[in-house]
Design a protein that fits this description.
The chain has about 190 residues and is mainly alpha-helical. Helices cover about 80% and strands about 0% of the residues.
Length: about 190
């Protein structure tokens, strides 16, 4: 059973998430979040240092949902090439959807120190997931081009390239071009991991 503190904290995060989607991080105030929750502003400060702290929690919530969705689709695939292609396409598609859904998020994420830290943490987490896929491919004989001990840095390098594309897509004024990402994935993934 969840504690009262956990329930209140979740309520604040979910209300803030709606406001950030509608108005952006910069335009949403602590007063707006407090009013949306029906709480005093002091209650927000009891649970969070500031608005950026709440935004970090919202981003973590979004990333967890993203990871669950992508993992389900990846786990349904059989070959390492299909798993990685699905990972790259689905992750990118969901990021595109989330950035386009959040009206002001694209501008909030451009050239921001918090974005750099978010990408760094995300790559660190996602590297573990990709490493597991590659190790599974190594164990089944599908991926033997890289030594087992080199798989973590190989996964990290592949993700750095992939997240470079994601970040470029976020910062690109023309938005995401999913069909280009799909063509890139369909061309390179089988050649590297097939």
């Amino acid at each position: 059973m969840r504690s009262k503190d956990e329930i209140v904290k979740e309520e604040i995060i979910l209300n803030a998430q709606k406001l950030f989607k509608q108005f952006s991080l910069k335009k949403t105030t602590m007063d707006d979040i407090a009013e949306s929750c029906g709480k005093a502003k002091s209650t927000l400060y009891h649970y969070f240092k500031n608005k950026d702290h709440i935004f970090d929690e919202v981003i973590q919530l979004e990333l967890i949902a993203l990871r669950v969705l992508v993992k389900e689709k990846v786990d349904a695939k059989k070959t390492i090439s299909d798993k990685l292609s699905t990972y790259f396409l689905e992750f990118h598609k969901e990021i595109a959807h989330k950035v386009n859904l959040h009206s002001g998020l694209r501008n909030d994420l451009k050239n921001d120190k918090k974005t750099t830290e978010l990408f760094r943490r995300t790559i660190a987490f996602e590297t573990k997931f990709i490493t597991r896929i590659l190790e599974e491919g190594y164990d089944t004989g599908e991926f033997t081009e890289v030594k087992l001990e080199d798989i973590p840095w190989f996964a990290e390098s592949a993700l750095a390239a992939f997240f470079g594309i994601v970040r470029f897509s976020i910062e690109n004024e023309n938005g995401f071009e999913l069909e280009k990402i799909e063509r890139i994935s369909n061309t390179f993934t089988p050649k590297i991991f097939g």
